[in-house]
Amino acid sequence: MSTVLIIFCVLAAITLATAFLTIFSRNPIHSAIYLVICFFSIAGHYLLLNAQFLAIVHVIVYSGAIMILFLFTIMLMNLNEEREVHRPRITRVGAIVSFCLICLVLIAIFINSKPIVGEYVTTGEDYQSIKVLGKILLNEYMVPFEFVSILLLVAMIGTVLLSKKEKLQK
Amino acid sequence: MSIESISLSGRKKLVSNKEMTFWERMYLIAIVKGLIITIQHLFTRKVTIQYPEQVREMSPVYRGQHQLKRDEQGRENCTACGLCALSCPAEAITMKAEERRADEKNLYREEKYASIYEINMLRCIFCGLCEEACPKDAIYLTTSKVLVPSSYEREDFIFGKDKLVMPLDIAMQNAQLKNAN
Amino acid sequence: MDSTIIIEKSVIIVAVFALTMLMAMYSTWAERKVAAWLQDRVGPNRAGPFGLFQPLADGLKLFSKEEFEPNTPNRFLFFVGPAIAMSTALMTSAVIPWGDRLHLFGRDILLQATDLNIGLLYFFGVVSVGVYGIMIGGWASNNKFSLIGAVRAASQMVSYEIAMGLSIIALLMMTGTLSLREISMQQAGMNWNIFYQPLSFIIFLICAFAEANRTPFDLAECETELIGGYHTEYSSMKMGFYLFAEYANMFISSTILAVLFFGGYNYPGMSWAVENWGVNIANVLGFGALFIKLCGFIFFFMWVRWTIPRFRYDQLMHLGWRILIPLAIVNIIITGTVILRADIAAYFGF
């Protein structure tokens, strides 16, 4: 086994284990912290793929900003275990059924999909460099990139509107 | 003269609530001014007194530990009249009077003396009223020039005559000085 | 991999680590000295000449203190908090170029632990993670004051990171690179970025104060309101780690400021020194120049601490969101316009 494979296995194990712990741990703070570790291991995966920029941006955005806001709200809300909502049994059964259905669909897709046959094209360009990345984003993938920015803008305006509306009703 | 124009210190300033201009609201100039003021203090003389090596000078009227005086012949002035205890606002002084025997004439000036004289230094507020009340010039707070030392036990702060009475050799020195003059 | 590279890199890493620790240690001493001088006092002067052994005495004291533990719901997180704060504070120095290169033993040695292509982003990433130490520690203390301190620290860090990042974008548009080494090299010969981007520098400076949790932005640990903020319940060396991390952060922020805006290791007449005195001497002098610059910034951090009082929380948020971020965006637009004008002028030939 090569070193890269060993590192990949360890990272994958950490990712999966912390992801499951995020769901199963009862304390909301603990599950948030597990999620943070999960994000860090995903950043490690990016590094293994030699995508330093993506890895660092992932750390900044997800671990550095989003999860901190998550923790922030959880700390402010003071969630206790006693106040956990007990859902009726039928929703649990529904959840299991829908999970199984999704699994079936996914397995069917994976079986039917064909692996990419062919060589990776090496252009000789350093794709870690933000210069190359920026050129590709703003030339080849210009339209999707702009769509993403519009989506974010709409989401931002929506949040502002929602928070303003509540104030007016008071 | 109206009340508005009176200014004793000459530095009277009317408080105004006027709107600040744009530059004032930026606070940048104010911050720079403040920085200049603080940096000036970097070059001013330091006021620290390095305590164990340097000792701050005591004022001549500093009231420290009490001292029971002796006269020029080395006799104790105190006659145990109790006026100091009576005047003490903190009730720190207690004493027990006793009659002077014939062979003690060289020890005590008056016919009555204090066999026990105790001041509780934890209660004493060093106001000096005992000194003012004393008719015999027996108790002084300003002459000892000693701070009451610290201690761990409460009992240690009840000062008896062993600590309060002026030592004999100092009394002799005082007498010699007086004779020399 | 070449074994000499491993040796070379490990020597540099150890040296940088030692330098960060030493600077953090002596920042505590300098903080007390500067505070004393600005207040017309003398400051620590008992331990050794000029009190130079004071940090050692402080460390000894912290190590020998009783280790107090609150009735915490999670002991593990209580221990992890200071560890995260400390390790993130020490990680940042990896990408800083301390000098150009030394020519020793017949090979060029870059005075930098690693020349990451995205060095500046790495700095941002590590700094943004640093707040976890405060948050986790504050939460695990099981104390209202600590929790409030942690929550304040988190929202402050997240808000000021945005302004910090935006202020840097204008600089990046000029330099065209994220590598701190290249940014340093572009500033050779008094071509410092501060002359081109003064607004960006001021925004970055204010945000650096906020990110390092220094006065006037030390709301996370203000003694008068929150006792000690997130480290109220900490004692002994765990407390020492938090304080140490704060000073290490201050050191790193000063270094980044010096590298980004004040020419890094460049000094006037460096190319002349390289020609006449050789690479090694010129670069040792360069390291000295960087060191003087960053010490100046550390002094400025301390100077400001004793000048400006602490902000109120709403003032802090107002400054961050409604003044610094719009200013940074305006700065980006101005920079973009100027660059575009230059491009158009070059294209049409006037």
UniProtKB/TrEMBL annotation, chain A:
NDH-1 shuttles electrons from NADH, via FMN and iron-sulfur (Fe-S) centers, to quinones in the respiratory chain. Couples the redox reaction to proton translocation (for every two electrons transferred, four hydrogen ions are translocated across the cytoplasmic membrane), and thus conserves the redox energy in a proton gradient. The keyword Membrane applies. It comes from the Bacteria. It is a multi-pass membrane protein. One of its GO terms (cellular component) is plasma membrane. This is NADH-quinone oxidoreductase subunit J. Belongs to the complex I subunit 6 family. The lineage of its organism: Bacteria, Pseudomonadati, Bacteroidota, Flavobacteriia, Flavobacteriales. It comes from Flavobacterium caseinilyticum. The chain crosses the membrane at residues 6-24, 31-49, 55-78, 90-111, 141-162. One of its GO terms (molecular function) is quinone binding.
From TrEMBL, chain B:
Gene3D superfamilies: 3.30.70.3270. It is found in: Cell membrane. Its cofactor is [4Fe-4S] cluster. It catalyses: a quinone + NADH + 5 H(+)(in) = a quinol + NAD(+) + 4 H(+)(out). GO terms for biological process: aerobic respiration. Residues 69-98, 115-144 form the 4Fe-4S ferredoxin-type domain. It is a peripheral membrane protein. The chain crosses the membrane at residues 26-43. Binds 2 [4Fe-4S] clusters per subunit. Its EC number is 7.1.1.-. The keyword NAD applies. Keywords: 4Fe-4S, Cell membrane, Iron, Iron-sulfur, Membrane, Metal-binding, NAD, Quinone, Repeat, Translocase, Transmembrane, Transmembrane helix, Ubiquinone. Belongs to the complex I 23 kDa subunit family. HAMAP family: NDH1_NuoI (MF_01351). This is NADH-quinone oxidoreductase subunit I.
UniProtKB/TrEMBL annotation, chain C:
It is found in: Cell membrane; Membrane. The keyword Membrane applies. This is NADH-quinone oxidoreductase subunit H. It is a multi-pass membrane protein. NDH-1 is composed of 14 different subunits. Subunits NuoA, H, J, K, L, M, N constitute the membrane sector of the complex. GO terms for biological process: aerobic respiration. Its EC number is 7.1.1.-. PROSITE patterns: COMPLEX1_ND1_1, COMPLEX1_ND1_2. It catalyses: a quinone + NADH + 5 H(+)(in) = a quinol + NAD(+) + 4 H(+)(out). The chain crosses the membrane at residues 12-29, 76-99, 120-140, 160-180, 192-211, 247-267, 279-303, 323-348. Its main location: membrane. Belongs to the complex I subunit 1 family. NCBIfam families: PRK06076.1-2 (NF004741).
